[in-house]
Amino acid sequence: MNRSGDRFKALLKECGLTPSDFAAQRRVTSQHINNWFTRGIPIARLDEMAELFCVQRRWLQTGEGPKHPQSFLRMYAPQATQIDAFGASPEKPVPLVQVPFHELCNGQLVALDNQHLAMPASALEALDVPEDHAICMTMPASNMAPWIPRDALLAIDLSYTKVVDGEIYALLHNGRLRVNSLSLGHRGTLCLHSNNRHEIVERYTPLQSKAQKLEILGWVFHWSHYRQRRPD
Fold this sequence. Notes:
Blueprint: H1 4-14, H2 19-25, H3 30-39, H4 46-53, H5 57-62, H6 70-76, E1 96-105, E2 108-120, H7 121-126, E3 134-138, E4 153-157, E5 168-173, E6 176-184, E7 190-193, E8 201-204, H8 206-211, E9 214-224
Antiparallel strand pairs: 1-2, 3-4, 4-9, 5-6, 5-9, 6-7, 7-8
Helix pairs in contact: 1-3, 2-3
């Protein structure tokens, strides 16, 4: 593959995203995405796409150099693999953080006894996630499918509630857990986007958010999911 459009198409396939899903998520038309496939990613959007897919800008544009940045390798390299950047070796195991599972009880976060998700400490460090503000919860609905399936395991940074357009957050809404992609509209209106309902955007003014007890719990920085059954 010698065009950025080819690499872009391969990245979508790796993430399990269709061109139409991606177009709706980034709020562009499907024709835009098809143009990128044939003509290449516009120069003005290379940095954005490289950051979104955790790849190097140079690799995405030209196919040269390493595909992923070193921070990605530290976070996701298999623990059994001896990779200097990750700091692992048979004599020096990878330091792990026990991220506690939580559930909602009467609208309050409650830690579950002896239930944790082991995550590499270097992964949290690379994302500037404080260990004492990281929790795990279960994806409560299918509104972000197929990107985040229902019942996927979520890791949430409770210290980061600043809205960055397009990022995914856990929220409390009238005492129930929600997970949505967020953006900010006119005069601080909070816009909630769902991956499986592209045409619907929920909008809440600051007064409406207060009245409906809508608050951002934190930034979703990791999710994982095992398939529930083998294909027939």
